[in-house]
Amino acid sequence: MRFLGKKLASSPAVTRVAPFLIFLALTVCQGEFGASSAYWFYFAKIFAGAWLVWEMRPLVSEMRWAFSWEAVVVSFVVFAVWVGLDPFYPHLMKSSAAWNPHEQFGENSALAWLMIGTRILGSTFIVPPLEEVFYRSFLYRYIANQNFLSTPLNKFLPLPFFATALVFGLAHNEWLAGILCGAAFQWLVIRKNRLGDAMTAHAITNFLLGAWVVWRGAWHFW
Fold it and tell me: What ranges in the chain are assigned the alpha helix state H?
């Protein structure tokens, strides 16, 4: 742990990219070691993600939560787009099984609710800082200039803007909603000249989506 912490501090790029790649690697492992591994790897990666965020916090000055009315509006719009567009375009992959803990661990079992709670908390508090730092702080600015720290957060650059939104979208099964979502979060960063509003919008969107999944049984979003 201490060795990895030192590696994260080795350069501004490593600090912003390595945690995302570690989180992504654990995501890829979900479901690869039996059906239950989809849940246990998610459980493990949230704890790993929490540690990574803790290690990043003193090293990434822009990774600070911020609240604004724009962030709230964007979060509700993105949620509405994500759910509303869902039936009207083909998704990247047809998942063989929905991520439904009630089916895996028993209807309304304590373990099922533990996994659901972990997923909602993880997507609300861990995923946003990791993804926003990688996409909006690093990738957007790196496309503009390899010396990415020299690019201001509030500078609109067409190629990085659309390229980052595209990459963000294609990382999600709901690619069209993801592209629009990535553009909206990038717009927030440019408008506010900070990462925190996009983190907040991302967190609220994910929380709303998690509540929708549980309320409506729309497990395919997970």
Answer: 2-8, 12-29, 37-56, 69-84, 101-105, 110-125, 127-132, 140-144, 158-170, 175-192, 196-216
